[in-house]
Amino acid sequence: MTFSEQLLQELAEAGGRIVKSGSGPELEKWPSRVAAARRSRRIPKTKELHGGGCRGGYEIKLVDIPAWRLAALKPVPVPSRLTRPHNVVRAMQSEPQPLGLTKPVQGRALRLIQALIIATENAGHSSAAGQTGSAPPPHRRRRAFPHFTITAQGQAVEFLVLQEQDRTEHVATEKELAEAEKNSWIRIPRFDYTPSERLRFVLSGGQPHRASEWSDAPGRSLEDQLAEIAQEVTLRGEAAERKRLDEIEAARQKRIRWEAAMEEARVQLRRGVPCQALRSTGNGMAPHNPTDGVRERRTHPGWDHALRSG
């Protein structure tokens, strides 16, 4: 039996989680061992192996891959021409330099946006235009105003469309060399940057799942990745909705506990037994032991009303 098979068997017997204790060189070997187990192709297709340091040593877990990562995504069709542009795309077309992109990539960028918006609206989401005629400077690429927004279940996901830059070694000119020799503060740049035909989509807002950036890559264009981007918008919307429902449920449970405590206090007062009044704290409700009814009423502003309502 190989080491990878032994590790997976040990994880299966331990319920999917083990901690390797110890220190020094023996413990330091586990990251490379976990990496080797990942490469062994012994891990089930629906599982993934995680490893990392923990308080007791090195933790190894075999967990289920989320269902959304296993889902077969339907490709998003990109139109060859914009015959009926969406309102958001039409707002961009009205700008002299849409999204701040150079002319060779403008048409493709607008067709990608059109395809993404149509796909997400078919899923029940909405979209709106942002600052459609501007490109952020390089040092503010991640903090610029969005070019457009797609909203899923109340969660706004903002999009920036950026044009990648090609970097080449800068060849100093005679003029630059002369000025640098004359003035010590002048620095000759090491590289030259020119706009390429590659594009990048940067997303912000909501809880990330797959990623927050997608770009053209060798053998995988943005057209091939639009389905993942559309799914990412949906996932962020679903996460926001779950969080909203969890907060509603937490508030409801808190209210139930509060009402139960008030009812218990009313019962104890009727019996003439000293009770625990509740005082409001920064983190919710906490018990308070009054010595008499006067102090009790002063402890909580709504106490008189609560007692009368009982």
Would you kindly provide a written description of the structure presented here, covering whatever features stand out?
Helix content is 41%, strand content 23%. It has helices at 3-13, 25-28, 30-39, 67-70, 87-93, 103-122, 174-182, 222-270, 293-299, 303-309, and strands spanning 17-20, 47-54, 57-64, 126-129, 148-152, 155-169, 191-204, 213-215, 277-281, 284-288. It contains ten helices and ten strands. By secondary structure, the chain is of the alpha+beta class. A hairpin with a 2-residue loop joins strand 2 and strand 3 (57-64). It has a five-stranded antiparallel β-sheet. The chain has a three-stranded antiparallel β-sheet with strand order 1-3-2, covered by helices on one side. Helix 1 packs across helix 3, helix 5 (87-93) runs antiparallel to helix 6 (103-122) and helix 6 packs across helix 8.
